[in-house]
């Protein structure tokens, strides 16, 4: 479970604390934006494990007894004091959450005497949190740090391999959109739509998107591949054999479609197993080799 899910589910019925890495310096287990949601009996997310995480989970559970909106910012050198050899330092905020409305948008955060105020960031400049120096005091405003960029992934196909891939996305720097046209292949997270709408969806892929195509039908696969290659998608992957690849390439050339971005077969070279779980791990590892920073620059 990701930290947002735990927080959203728990907030209506019990206190929830949030641990946020605000800034780091030198070597640290996680960067700014790493978070954990903590309740009396559960936690989700990670700020890197080890003694630091153990100590902060204890502080988060202690703040559950304080009023909603209570917060504290603390610095931790990652040296002998915590038994961690990273050598860097982290600045962390622990708060008792008041709501989950701000989770999915860039946020201007203002520390107040009685709580944490969050507003839509918009185009307003906001100070970043420094990793050392005086701790932020009430009235300090900063841009809520994000936990790194995520690669938008369009996954077409909810069969065995599609489900194996989708089942392993949680916790990875990927943002999944999952599609199929078969009503009986409905599953949590799958968008069921007519074939024509799936093709339109593939054609709309932006320059930051990866597209994976592994449907039940070679004809639909081809239409999706052609649409994705005509889009700005930075990665277009197709499940299939060398024979399928050759046939698709010949047809694409005949239609004047540039197939230089087509990856088929998919998955890291050297992983040859054909079990759905093996394919899923090989494909996700391949996607993780795509440079996320470059992806986000292209999108901008």
TrEMBL record:
Q: Name one Pfam family in it.
A: XdhC_C
Q: What is this protein called?
A: Xanthine dehydrogenase accessory factor
The XdhC- CoxI domain sits at: 13-65
Q: Which domain of life is it from?
A: Bacteria
Name all XdhC Rossmann domain ranges.
153-287
Membrane spanning stretches: none
Which Gene3D superfamilies does the entry link to?
A: NAD(P)-binding Rossmann-like Domain
